[in-house]
Design brief:
Bound molecules: beta-D-glucopyranose, 1-deoxynojirimycin
Number of strands: 42
Distance between the termini: 39 Å
Helix content: 25-40%
Shape: globular
Largest sheet: 10 strands, antiparallel
Amino acid sequence: MQFGYFDDEQREYVITRPDTPLPWINYLGCEEYFGIISNTAGGYSFYKDARLRRLTRYRYNNAPLDSGGRYIYLRDDGFPSNSNGPLFWSPTWQPTRHRLDEYECRHGLGYTAIRSKLAGIESHIRYFVPLGENLEIWELTLTNHRSKPANLSVFSAIEFCLWDAWDDATNFQRNYSIGQVEVLDGVIYHKSEYRERRNHFAYLACSEKLSGFDTQREAFLGAYRGWDSPSAVEAGRMSNSIAYGWQPVGTQHIKLRLNAGEGKKVIFILGYHENPQDEKFDPPDSQTLNKRTVIPIIRRYLQANQVEHAFQALRAYWDRLLEKLQVTTPDGHTNRMVNIWNAYQVMAAFNLSRSASYFESGVGRGIGFRDSNQDLLGCVQLVPERARQRIFDLAATQLPSGGAYHQYQPLTKRGNHEVGSDFNDDPLWLVLSVAAYIKETGDWEVLCEPVPYDNLPGSEEPLYNHLERSIQYTLDRTGPHGLPLIGRADWNDCLNLNCFSDTPGQSFQTTTNKDGKVAESIFIAGLFVLAVDEMAGIARHYQHGREADEFCDAAQEMRTAIWAAGWDGEWFRRAYDDLGHPVGSKECEEGQIFIEPQGICVMAGLGIDDGRAKQALDAVAERLATPHGIVLHQPAYSRYYLHLGEISSYPPGYKENAGIFCHTNPWIIIAETRIDRGDCAYDYYLRINPSVREEISEVHKCEPYVYAQMIAGGDAPTFGEAKNSWLTGTAAWNYVAITQWILGIRPTFEGLEIAPVIPSAWSGFDAVRHYRGVRYVIQVMRKGSGNKVQLEVDGKAIEGTVITPPRAGTKEVQVTVRVA
Ligand code: BGC
Ligand code: NOJ
């Protein structure tokens, strides 16, 4: 069952009924100001950091209720008391949930538009954040389709958050007394804590003259009432309340008379603004907000032509980004995901890491070290300059040991002490992201840039040294089998082999009861080989030939350790626990085979020549693959195992306990292409592809236009149900799997490689890829059933699959690819 459809032409997903199985969201903003918006206008906004600079409130544990949002109410002021028509309603359905005659929500790239109609009144609201600005626009267009004039009231409503979202939700003994606002010329300014240490404030402005406003929540709602039935809306009258403490809100009232057939545009702006520390007040010795620099911004965006201009600029921005790679394959799902939604999701994950979604509260997690490094794999080609900066930010939270803070706060860019470090896979991901960045851009200079450790001035070393320390970190921490020690956890955050927690409420991730000298990870071993191979490539180019050889030796030694202790006979083992027993082995009662090492080890090239890679992937197909995707492990853990940690805390089939953790599926997809099984790779690709799953939306439940982190596995009563949509490494890895390995368009240090491993039934495909300033026009033709590639560049056959960069000044290159 579907709740909407894709409009590929417009690059939009169109939701045709408001009661989707869960709120289906979109993101506004792609620079420093962000908003989350659901298909019924729920969500919240923040500047840079969803925890520390939250503009508006949202209620937690709230799916699918979705309360808190950017609300607009319409009131029929001519409503005759004897009629049974509506007195007031939400044109976005929420929060009144009044039945609408028509409803449509279009989630586009960086904007959302919700159109509805009730009793002859049509409303169209377009929400977006102009490029370069710290504000969001709600552009409302009302049209009277009645045959007589309509007298309408329009109300806007948001609830301000007192900046630190965690404190705001918990410290109400203080917060009920600190709220402050100012209202001037119809603009509501929220300035809690501005009188002391803050130099920022929020504002809500409107293009029309106000009939009234309220800034104290209960004055607007009425005591004991909810957002679904505000007393001010019911009465059609505001009380111009000024908030002192309690709950500051921004609510505005305008009155309109629309003649039959007449339309009218009303613009609302919600924004964030900072003043210089010594110009906070105007006059300087007063406590009044200095509004001198914000007023011109407000004036500008209250003009319809400026709004339209900003909207077109936003559309052009996304067109430009997506242009980097456009494909035409025989499969519409592939085209749609590659050309639009997968790339878009990678950017959302890059922007927000795992901080703010409808499954991430925005208060808990900042920028994850491993997460963001993996996001970079999917978006270096889209935003190379920002990727470069992100690499520096991440590397600056690396520690002198080579280890890294697991997370940092985006506002401060400082490592998060609460979570700390010792997730032993973390530093290796930095090597992969830097390698991907260089392969894309050819910017070898990046390796020379000085970057500090732990953000300490004076500790700067070239980025290259950070990478060396990343590798050394693993070498310094090996266990009894010569395999990497796991630390708190590796990629699987819930495989906590040194935790042994029997106390409710303890964090599995940060509690460590063992000295950590025994438990080893075969996943990290595979990742190490992958990273060291990249490092050898980097070292060779960086004129560190001897080091390159040393890296190759280290990789070889690790391979030997993997074959000696990490191979279970038919597949790769997952780990060794603190007692030295294998995890992910036939010897185990539960958790006999795990997906992660099969993916990463084959990606690192292990067993490709001798058939063991094929054996491992056959085992995946036989034991882990389901119609909804590939599960993490089998059998699921049926009880809690003290020595395994959080993984066994989840009921079977959910999350890390044998859920379909979509992030790992592309590793198997890539591995399948490495052993030339294009049909199998593509089959796995389609199983978790959200566009394919659109038609089972009532089962899948999450948005059909983006990947979810997890789909419940076969052990779960709700097999096939997705959760944790949007912010997941699934986006980047699927993008890499489909574009670089199935379609085979792959940047290398030397140039663009084209080596497709496409399904046997495809006749070929076309693609346009912008790479290092050159436009590659690629035509792939299947000439036989295998994957042997013959390239012709501008009509001339070349050796191998890598196209060396053309002569300087070349703008376009024609590539013909024969696959046989
Ligand atoms: C989740 C993981 C996540 C971790 C982050 C766990 O509870 O299951 O998916 O990586 O928390 O802290
Ligand atoms: C989500 C986390 O963000 C990521 O870092 C981790 O690798 C996966 N969960 C698996 O546990």
